Amino acid sequence: TNLLYQPINKLNTALESYTKGVAGFKRYLEIIDEVPDIREAPDAINLPSVRGDIHYKNITFGYEGHANVLSNVSFSIRAGETVAFVGPSGAGKSTICSLLPRFYDPGQGVITLDGIDIKDLSLNCLRTNIGVVQQDVFLFSGTLRDNIAYGMLNAGEAEIWEAARRARIDDFIRSQPDGLDTVIGERGVKLSGGQKQRVAIARMFLKNPPILILDEATSALDTETELLIQQSLDELSKGRTTLIIAHRLATIKNADRIIVVTDKGISEQGHHNELVTGNGLYSRLYTAQFRSG
Ligand code: ATP
Hints:
The chain is α/β, with parallel strands linked by helices. About 40% of the residues lie in helices and about 20% in strands.
């Protein structure tokens, strides 16, 4: 699970003392670029717009000094499709997703976005088109406004409120005397886990990337919060290519497609209704884990 966070954790540390949101975002890109061995092609391409067609072709990857986590993994995701990755802990779901923004590069194989090898795209183009929502939400000390409009210099008041509304955090913001100017974090209002997640979701509505990676929380939220977050994530993923590292049955059932990842690679894929009636790992996982929860 912690895979996606590794480069981001590095950046959180760097950003902790860094409270100016907009400048912080630029710094984010710089720091991310410093992940070793990730190099931009000399004539890197900037796509004017991204549809979000993704192909993983024969991907083999292992962390430095470790055995391969992925061997010859191939799959495709159509633009706008929502795919849930499920499978046992440690099988490589997070690893698969972390290759898309090039937090790591595969040892072998090619990943394409809209038919172009992602190694030929500028890192800025690649990463501004991919939004990552993690279970450990990163917010900095500052106002709600700065946290929602993180990195988006030109966001207007109305757009920020619209993003907040779609993320179901607007009522909370309105309940605060200082509204969007409410300071959060160490010296301000402490947010609950669910509120933090909704601020992060609001940020994504504003950023509006065509591709999303959602790393679902494993920790339980109360039912009402969970429902709010589920609804806002469903809305967020509409019309975007969405990769979900899935733990919740509701998400998995609603996904256009489920890709089951085991330590031997992708064992099966399909819609919930197909997989649940089959005799593969998914139907066993479903019976064992999900039926009760
Ligand atoms: P979970 O459901 O627990 O989140 P996962 O399917 O997402 O698991 P990954 O997090 O992708 O699995 O991990 C795949 C394998 O790679 C695991 O064996 C893990 O221990 C290993 N791994 C993950 N990150 C690193 C790293 N930075 N260095 C070395 N090994 C790692």
